């Protein structure tokens, strides 16, 4: 799959979230920004995002996925730090 295909798929499944995708083949890095993550642990946030791709992970279409799930405030803070 292409990163653009992954982004489109995720945007269709969670249109209220902002996605940045990089990678190719079956290995991708996904950054998700949403205030829905407020109060959730890092692991819980990742689990929520993984659920959007359950079928693709199960059938092997996607293999190695790295997820960073942030609130808008956390994203701004990282941007200010140059991350």
Description:
- Helix content is 43%, strand content 25%.
- It is built from four helices and three strands, in the order αββααβα.
- It has one domain (3-78): GMP Synthetase, Chain A, domain 3 (2-Layer Sandwich), CATH 3.30.300.
- The protein is α+β, with helices and mostly antiparallel strands.
- A three-stranded mixed beta sheet has the order 1-2-3.
- The protein has helices at residues 3-13, 42-51, 54-58, 72-81; strands at residues 18-24, 27-33, 64-70.
In short:
It is built from four helices and three strands; from the N terminus they run H-E-E-H-H-E-H. It is α+β, with helices and mostly antiparallel strands and 83 residues long. The chain has a single domain, classed as BolA-like (GMP Synthetase, Chain A, domain 3).
Keywords for this structure?
single chain, 83 residues, alpha+beta, GMP Synthetase, Chain A, domain 3, three-stranded mixed β-sheet, 4 helices, 3 strands
What is the element layout, followed by pairings?
Elements: H1 3-13, E1 18-24, E2 27-33, H2 42-51, H3 54-58, E3 64-70, H4 72-81
Parallel strand pairs: 2-3
Antiparallel strand pairs: 1-2
Strand order of the largest sheet: 1-2-3
Q: Helicity range of the residues?
A: 40-55%
Number of extended strands: 3
Task: Spell out the helices and strands N to C.
Answer: HEEHHEH
CATH C-level class is Alpha Beta
Distance between the termini: 26 Å
Derived from helix and strand composition plus strand pairing, the structural class reads alpha+beta
